[in-house]
Amino acid sequence: MPLSLDPMPHPLDHLAERGRDGDPALVLRRETLSFKALRTRIGQLASWLADQMHEPGSRVASWAAKGELTCLLPLAAARAGLVHVPINPLLKRAQVAHILADSGARLLIGTKARLDSLKAGDAPQGCVVLEEKTAIEASRECLARGPSSADPQALVAILYTSGSTGRPKGVMLSHANLWLGAASVAYYLGLERDDVVLAVLPLSFDYGQNQLLSAWYAGASVVPLDYLTPRDVTKACACHGVTTLAAVPPLWVQLVEQEWPAESMTPMRRLTNSGGALTVDLVRQLRALFPQARLFPMYGLTEAFRSTYLDPLLVDTHPTSMGKAIPFAEILVIGDDGRVTSAGEEGELVHCGPLVAQGYWQDAERTAERFKPAPAESHYGGTAVWSGDRVVRDSEGLLHFVGRRDAMIKSAGNRISPQEIEDAALATGLAAEAAAVGVKDERLGQAVLLVVRGSGDEAALRAALKRDLPNFMQPHEIRWVERMPLNPNGKIDRAALQAETVP
User: Fold this and answer.
1) Are 80 and 58 in contact (CB under 8 A)?
2) What is the rounded CA–CA span in Å between residue 255 and residue 415?
3) Does the first or last residue of the chain, that is N or C, have fewer Cβ atoms within 10 Å of its Cβ?
4) Which domain holds residue 471?
5) Residue at 361 is within a domain
6) How far apart are CA 293 and CA 423, in angstroms?
7) pLDDT digits over 447-475, tens only?
8) Which CATH number covers residue 473?
9) Does residue 95 belong to any structural domain of this protein?
10) Which of 73, 57, 360 is nearest to 213 (CA)?
């Protein structure tokens, strides 16, 4: 039965109540949890968390691969009255230490290998550090806690995302933000109870986490997968009869190059993409490989979760369009004069409505830069997210991406702060000046080019960066220069560096 669109948000943990008792909800390596078992395990983990952290609103961080803990925590923390801080498992200790300190986490649960990489002082004073196995086993001895009666507007999660400057910042999300995001996606994708969603994206990303939430909103099942090769994805699709697959463009590029057996392809009903635009060639390849599946290109930003999607019926004729607003989102294009633009006129994408996050955690200055009063033309009013993305709305009402206003690099679906890479390069002592820019790359969307004035010892610099930065932040190319280009203000001229990369 098709989903109806309920505009009333509920406490986030109530998502687990929507599935039928005996239907599969979560397919783990060694067991499959029915919705009844899922509710029990969420309740047990919530009871254990509440016993560990007595102050409502305390932050609990997770740093682990996909599994029982990372899939249960978003709802268990919500049920316990806590705030979940999922940490990308690909991050290194320096980034994790920043997130722990910035969020004021009181509990960190992670896999042993990751926790062993931390050094003294990485976890803030008063933060308890526990292995994932210990937490899971201890929670199974607890009585299950019932559904919460939390205020839907209360803070329930902080997702850390990189901007164009500085270290990752925490986006504050409410129960309502995540509930309505799940309802919206489940509705426009047409998810049903017999759907099987393969969750290959990191659960620390809003796109990845929503795979869980939207599936459970629809009463469907989720198969979490940490893949090593694209072949792992095709095998999982065949093994589990996957009907819904979400990915970012670099993964799609690899997947279309694979041999897809019939049992991997036949059940597929829908493909979804975000984290970067699909190329025309990639759209055509996906449509040829999965002619029976609906393809949903989507655009989003963590500060408002998801903004637009393109109707699959329009993909063949408008393959590069961002589409139109998703349910519960109002998308305005605002010109430099502060007014809504006309068709064909470029402006900034402004997202209004209840999917807008609550701002950045303990960062009023950066919150004020991005979260501003909605334009007067907004139906919702209130606070809007001013994305910094330049777009054009055509005569049919479809949006088209033009470019970004800031210097953020988007590579393989990751938002990368140039300053974070530059700070790491300068900290090595091998660089006197450094500037990171994104360059077009067919597989990654953008690759990182690091321009450096310094010692010229590239091997030593790369070794240091591999030690301090996660793999997705590593420079594709390091270019040594004798002098950095400067703008009239005496700052490094990023526009000039970017221009030099264009053939």
Assistant:
1) no
2) 22
3) C
4) 409-501
5) no
6) 44
7) 999 999 888 899 999 999 999 999 999 99
8) 3.30.300.30
9) yes
10) 73
What does DSSP assign to residue 389? E
Instruction: Note whether 309 and 244 are same-domain residues.
Output: yes
Let me know whether 392 and 435 are in one domain.
Answer: no
Report the residue count for the chain.
Answer: 503
CA 167 vs CA 95, 108, 310, 437: distances in Å:
8, 20, 32, 16
- Cβ proximity of 370 and 348 under 8 Å: no
* H helix runs in 219-298, sequence order: 230-240, 249-255, 262-265, 280-289
- Residue 180: per-residue pLDDT: 97
- Euclidean distance between CA atoms 298 and 322, whole angstroms: 6
In a domain, 360, yes or no: no
Tokens of 2: 């098709």
**Within this chain, do residues 430 and 318 fall inside the same structural domain, yes or no?**
no
Q: Give 503's pLDDT tier (boundaries 50, 70, 90).
A: low
The CA distance from 478 to 435, in Å, is 10
* pTM over 0.85, yes/no: yes
Residue range 338-393, pLDDT digits in tens: 999 999 999 999 999 999 999 999 999 999 999 999 999 999 999 999 999 989 99
CB 453 within 8 A of CB 433: yes
Contact 479, 453 (CB under 8 A): no
Report the number of distinct structural domains present in the chain. 3
In-domain check, residue 60:
yes
3-class SS of residue 225: coil
Same domain? 394 vs 414:
no
List, in sequence order, the alpha helices (H) in 317-444.
Answer: 364-370, 418-427
Residue 410, C-beta contacts closer than 8 angstroms, at least 6 positions apart = 275, 276, 416, 438, 445, 446
